[in-house]
Amino acid sequence: MENKINSADYLLLLLYLNNQEPIKGSTRLMKMMFIFNKEILSKISKPNEKIIINDFEAYKFGPFSKSLYEQVALFTSLEFIKVDTDKKLEELANLDNFEEDNFEADNFQLNESNLMYIYKIKKNGIEYVENEIIPHLNNEAVVTKLEKFKNKINEISIKNLLFYVYNKYPDYTKKSIIKDEVLKGHEKKTNL
Question: Which residues contact 66 (CB under 8 A, 6 or more apart)?
Answer without folding.
Answer: 55, 100, 103, 106
